[in-house]
Amino acid sequence: MLKTSSHRCDIVVLGGGLSGICAAVRAARAGANVALLDRKGSLGGRVSGDSRLPFENGPNPNYVYQREGGLMDELNALLLRENPEGTYAGLSRALKSWMLEEKRLRVFLRIYAYESKLNETGDKIEAVRAISNSEGKSYLFFAKYFIDCSGVGSLSELCGAPGEKGKDLNEYDSKSKQASSRRDSIVTSIRIAQKRKPIPFSCPDWVRVQWEENLLAARIQWMKSLEESLTGEHLLEWCGQNREVLAEPEEIAWAAWDYLKNRSPLSEVASNLVLEEVSSGAVNHEVHRGLGDHQVNPDDMIAGQRYPDSIAVGRSLMDGGESLLLSDDGRICLPQPFEIPLRSLYSKKFKNLLWAGEHASCTSRASMSLGHPSTASQMGEAVGFCAAKCIRRNRLPRTLSKPGYVDEVKRELSRLNHTTSLDPVEDLDNLIGEAEVSASSVINSWIVGDSGKCLSSVKSESFMLRFPVTDVKIDQIELLLRLENSETIEFRLLSGTGYQGNLPGHCLFSTTLVVEGSTEGWVELNPKCSNLEPGWHFLEVNFSQAISMPIQRSSLPGVILYRKKANHDSKISNAYGQHFPVLSEQPGPAPGPLLKISPTPSAYDPQNVTTANQRPSKLPDLWVSQPTDFKYPEFLEIKWEQAKDLSRVEITFDPSYDFIFDKKPRSYDTVSIPSLIKEYKLYYYDLLGHSHLLEHVDGNLSSFARHDFSSIRAMGLELEILKTYGLNRAQVYQIRAYS
């Protein structure tokens, strides 16, 4: 009989994926003692080296500044810095190091939970029993709250929480129903090597499936992977049509190998190849979705439904019926991010059970969106915080979802740089809103970088240029173009519409220009538009043939170039536009068009740091200095008419929210975000106007900084920017001050 050890803590988190990691870290930082359990030997869950599912979707073209803040932003910066080699082993190492540094958090790996113990009334979980494979003993984990981040709802099933499995085909249109009726996907990885001589292969009889029975999109996906490299690691996804046969990972691998060696167009070039390794880390997307007080559903996600108890925001694509786990192909772009209410993140039956991920309270179609790693991480951070707050306030999650309580939760999460809802959270305690803000300089030209030097270009026959407008009129637009032949160019000026004005809307002006011969120079338009509303505007530019549009490196936030969707782009479906944003392949600001607007919009003024927005909304919402070498510091000066008692200052720097990290670990050219502030000083002004140093930070690594100090009586603050990680200007989104 196995020896049993008891472990008591405040919160047990089951699952070491991104949702579980964020839940555990946030709960621990909120003061709870946490135990994180995972059955594997490394952290990361489905994005780890065992499973290797995509870390990211591709960028959603309908809202560019989509990358998460809060813990996920901290984690992305950590992985960039601590995994410079860009490997799965480096990912595992960085995650483990991060977790082990957290106080009040203990990690248990290679431990399998197999039984739950309930209280006498059957409405609470008292303990979870688990067996440790590495130690050869069992554990009994007692806790006040349990968070299921397993990815499949295993804890919910252990304790008998109400829920459902399978797909509801009524959520799909008639075309997608047939594709969705297939068995849920299974993913495994293989390693291929090359030998000096041909190695024949005969498929064993115990393999019950043929690769041709797989979904066509999954087969094409592997062919694309083989086109990139025949040898090395490859991911296989199985979406078999035969629901009577549940194929094992090894069967999937050998069925694919049989096809490649014996029947595929590549069989001749594959003659010297051998299948070296089959991963045991297969993923079956069948999950037990718990039943909460609310079910997240696709209709509300598409409509951008607001919930009073929303505590997390997701940005993932939606399942289109033929969607795969390993690819964006077949997925659907939403017009905006979607809110996730607290009522969908706790069990209707068990008072101390919460969820994060695709097994939360949602419909089957919404489940895939909630399983997106970054979206699941936002859910994890939110429920980790809520569980700790339930303990601290002696309240149940259902109580926290009520007005008053949830408003407090949202304010506190927002002050951790975590986005809780589509609309900004009002913070009445922030004293900065009463202040006047001035700056050392403010950028007054959209031609930035190396004095506007065109470093590269983007080729397409159609472009969309996005830019902010703060005046009531646009008199003139100038655009730098490079043409090799005579061209007839169509221009359309559009207002923004939809969520935060992120989508092209009503046409304000159109014209056609004929340009003779090859040329490189500024093209002038004179729309003379008036009575404009502040917000995003778009300039659509269409050519008779593909041309190379000049672009500059590190464009300003909000000045974005889109190109028409091309054949090589992912086959995502977007009903709201056919242009893709041109984003940076390396961490940092996106490149952008060389564009001039008259009158020049005052979109980057220092007063922007007093707003409730921590990222671009209807406007850029940040202060940007003039280009500089930082020989002399750039600074923001904040002054109040009446003295304020201060004990905390919070600052949100610019981490380039438009940059989207790769779908798998990779090595980048930099280990830090160039737009982040590296060195800064924070001063306060006393009642006599004398300045005193509060903080000097050199080597800042985060987009969010919090400074606590003994209470002071201040007439103002000064933030002095001494250095960035490479960008030639200072960019700050928000400063908050509290007594």
What does this structure look like?
With 739 residues, the chain is α+β, with helices and mostly antiparallel strands. It folds into four domains: 4-162 and 286-414, FAD/NAD(P)-binding domain (3-Layer(bba) Sandwich); 185-284, no CATH class; 432-442 and 604-738, Jelly Rolls; 456-598, Jelly Rolls. The strands form eight sheets. Strands 18, 29, 30, 31, 32, 33 and 34 form a seven-stranded antiparallel beta sheet that branches. Strands 19, 21, 22, 24, 25, 26 and 27 form a seven-stranded antiparallel beta sheet that branches. A hairpin with a 5-residue loop joins strand 31 (677-685) and strand 32. Helix 1 (18-29) packs parallel to helix 10 (373-393) and helix 2 (70-82) crosses helix 3. The mean pLDDT is 93.
Question: Can you lay out the helices and strands and say which pair or pack?
Answer:
Blueprint (H helix, E strand, L loop, with lengths): L3 E5 L2 E4 L3 H12 L4 E5 L31 H13 L5 H13 L4 E5 L1 E8 L6 E8 L4 E6 L2 E4 L5 H6 L3 E2 L9 H7 L5 E9 L21 H13 L3 E7 L10 H14 L10 E6 L4 E2 L4 E2 L7 H6 L6 E5 L23 E4 L11 E3 L8 H7 L2 H21 L3 H4 L4 H10 L21 E4 L16 E14 L6 E8 L3 E11 L5 E13 L3 E7 L9 E18 L7 E5 L14 E3 L10 E2 L1 E4 L24 E2 L9 E20 L23 E9 L5 E8 L5 E21 L6 E8 L1
Parallel strand pairs: 1-7, 2-3, 2-8, 3-4, 8-17
Antiparallel strand pairs: 5-6, 6-7, 9-14, 10-11, 10-12, 10-13, 15-16, 18-30, 19-24, 19-25, 20-23, 20-28, 21-22, 21-24, 24-27, 25-26, 29-34, 30-33, 30-34, 31-32, 31-33
